[in-house]
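Subject: Sanity check before I submit

Could someone independently write out the structure tokens for this chain? I want to compare against mine line by line before I put it in a report. The sequence has 710 residues.
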Amino acid sequence: MFDSFDLTFSSNPIIIIFGILLLSAYSFYIYKFTIPQLSKPLKTLLFILRSIAVVLIFLLIFEPTLSFSSYEEEIPLHLIYVDNSQSLAHKNSSENDDKIKQILNDFIKSNIKSEVALFDSEIKNLGNTDTLEKVIFFNGVTTNFESIVNSLENDERKISSALIISDGKITNGKNPLFAAEKLGIPIYTIGIGDTTEYKDVLVESTSYNSLLYQDSKTIFETMIVNKDYSSERAVVELIKNSQIIDRKNITLSENGINKVEFEFTPEKSGQEIFTISVTKFDDEILTDNNSKSFRVTVLENKLNILILSGSPSADFSFIKKTLLQNKDYKITEHVEISKSKPTDSDLGAKLDSAKILVLVNYPGKITSQSSISQVVSKIREDKLSYLFILGNNSEYNKLRYFEEILSFYIESNPRKSHEIQLNLLNKFSPIFTIPNYNLEIWNTLPPVNYSGAQYEVKAGAQIAATVNLNSVKTEIPLVITNSTGINKNISILAANIWKWKLKSNSNTEFLYDLLIENSIKWLNTDSQLKRFRIRTNKDIYSQGEPVIFQAEFYDESLQPIDDGKIELTFADSDQIPKIILLPEGDGKYSAQIDNLVPGTYNFTADAISSNGQIEIERGSFLVEKINIEFVDPTLDKNFLTRLAQISGGKYFDLNEYPSLIEKLEKISSSQKKEKVITESYNLWTFETLLTIIIAIFAIEWVIRKRSGLL
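---
Independent answer below. Compare away.
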């Protein structure tokens, strides 16, 4: 029900009243004298009908709006998040359970409108539960505070405050302090957990590069923290595949912080799992935290890129400068200065080590037939990917020897040179990708030179950009990409593309470097998308964490397969039965394994399509003996205090929670306000009202006809 209503018009009320009176007087005048003479009741009825109809039409001209208002009390909502992780079960779990239930029951009995949720690796909402018996289990395998802040940020309700009851130990997700400061919602915290200080030595953290290069030395830096073991001798070991590969003897410092470095040079590519381990002392209560594992990926050296140029040029210089900015590239150049320098043997050695070729102004006027044969043979036999850039000095007659590996045919040699601009044709091309930018920015690049030659694009190649000549879009190819042949290649059929860098304005000068970088990345990726892929959601798990497998399965046309069968088997493990991944739609499959014992697991996945074709993938993961929730189960009062203060809340010890309830009751009372809910209807748009007016006129007309009025 509504409490009040209001009728408004778009004009002055005096004008409206005057109009109503005038129209009513007009209706009265019409029926004051009639031929034939009617009875007074009938005259009155006709007068009323005509007055209502004309007055309604008159009122609709002034756009009447009818509003209904109701009032309700808006009570602020306080959200309560309870730590459900195993760290609270490490010691005095039944006591912690009782304390939390007491706090929640007291909140429910108070005048605070609240909702309760459990959190561990994710949030489980309990709503405004009246009873909390058998709810708290302390069975979460990790503790993610970031999920709380994200949940509050995405909650569209009016949240007055949040309360977190926890020991403050983060074992999953990012530290939420920065996000909490921007949240705008005060977070109150109540600390609960073990306050006992243990003697302990632990591997606090390890700093390393997750991507390494074969035969390149790297440093693993680890931080060893000791509590009450100062001046004791300890051994720190670097372990790979259960083999100790390095060992350091240290004396534990008085300040409790010990930094240890290990040098390591990977000898082969692939993935490797390392463990940093420190001495376990006899009187340590906690020993699960004396080791920490991590995984790195070793790549085959740096990416060797060979730049071939038929002559020195500005295009060559600019491309070389751009590529040298990336420290993961090893750049080799072969610039032909004369017929004897550099030699063909120099070219052969450079080609042997190259992974990607960049051809600029190549072949040139002095390029020998022997050099051309070496390059074409290397691209064809080793399936080398390449970036091809035409230049002013490219020799078109010699370029025809490249046609078998190019993505286009040369139909005619250069004629008149033109200045042209790029017109982006394929907005989905990966080489033109720019996050958070309008792709039309590519079309604002300054003019470059087009030779006037005619080209025909081969089947399977994609035209990524065309020529814009004199502000007119043409079908002449400018940038061509191809991943369907013996290799992946990109062709830019223009000269002096250095202008895209040097003559661009400050808003577009980055596009040149981005185009070259995107091109190299695309050329360096596998040209064939795997039909079947499988991975775990993590590389390393702590004991008790669920292992989640995620797979994708496609047919020959790379269309998702939803009716396939994916079987998972484990090497050297008879205890784990064969796992069948369940389809989720759109070619995706998943499975989960719980309660695996510590160790390294190697698995094989067989994907079988409905036509019997089989795809096989292999992988591995590590389950550590350590239970991450038990590494340090003590109360982190410092973190909970900082989290509360930075968000505008306050930290409370466990025995202080009654004062928190009292504080939140006052806040809730002060924030209560009456909320007005208004519903408005524009009467001039109501078809029903128009129908009523027509009906009134119809009734009037029928009465007039039956009464013999004209």
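---
OP: Matches mine. For the report I'm noting this point. Residues 567 and 580 are 5 Å apart (CA to CA).
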